[in-house]
Amino acid sequence: MISFDKIPSTQTYALNMVATGTARDHTVVMAEAQSAGRGRYRRTWVSHHGNLYVSFIYNAEERDPRLSYMVAVAVAETLMSFGIHPKIKWPNDIMIDGKKVCGILIEYAGRFVIVGIGINIKSNPTVAAYQTTKLDNYANVDKSDLLNRLMKNLDKWRRTDFPLVRARWMDLATGLNKIVKYRGENVELIGINENGALVLRDGSRYLLAYGDEISM
After folding, report:
1. In 8-98, which ranges are E strands?
2. 93-96 and 99-109 beta bridge pairing
3. Which of 34, 146, 157, 183 stands 20 to 30 A from 206 (CA)?
4. What gap in Å lies between CA 72 and CA 78, rounded to an integer?
């Protein structure tokens, strides 16, 4: 494990490791705080001390759209092991009581995939677009214990046959059979298929989406 008190971004550091040829499978990059943390679509991820900011580097021969569901289930299962009851908002935001507690960013680089995870433990930022929360509101969570359980769950769910991952994701998903907005249209969220595509229904027409933004 490579650990820092504060760096711009664990994700950027991991990407640089890949670029310089120093990345290895199962490398873990962690920081106590980040000055330039980021989420999906280059959004800022506010990163104060006390929370978990970590990027995992794994071998990846090719892109796998199913990976985000494996990671989301692994994070949710980890929180459940502390007696917390999270839900998953497509594709992989982790929510508690409808408030975001964890963000996941998956990026491919060379022959690796980098899985960045930020979990609010001691503090949660005020964000205009959505409500946030922290684990401290629900349980006493030690950060090193959280990281150890998370690493084990990531290995477990990445090895699990996808039909089981899919079933667990559907168990934990929020918004199933609800109306969501996709590319400006109101459609019904049905679930995910065996390839990791999001299944949406527009009247009698079914749509498949990979990685596109939907809003609930």
Report:
1. 27-34, 52-59, 87-89, 93-96
2. antiparallel
3. 157
4. 10
Dist CA 46 CA 124 (whole Å): 8
DSSP letter string, 147-190 = HHHHHHHHHHHHHS-HHHHHHHHHHHBSSTTSEEEETTEEEEEE
Q: Where are the domains of the chain?
A: 2-172, 179-215
pLDDT in tens, 112-162: 999 999 999 999 988 888 899 999 999 999 999 999 999 999 999 999 999
The CATH superfamily label for domain 2-172 reads: Bira Bifunctional Protein; Domain 2 (3.30.930.10)
Q: Which long-range contacts (CB under 8 A, 24 or more apart) does 125-129 make?
A: 125/46, 125/48, 127/46, 127/100
Could you read off the pLDDT of 34-76 as tens digits, one per residue? 887 666 545 666 667 899 999 999 999 899 989 999 999 999 9
Beta bridge partners of 6: 33
Q: For CA atoms 169, 175, 177, 183, give the dihedral sign.
A: negative
How far apart CA 111 and CA 113 sit, in angstroms, is: 7
- Is 90 exceeded by the pLDDT of residue 210? no
How distant, in Å, are the alpha carbons of 48, 119, 135, 143 from that of 140? 18, 14, 8, 10
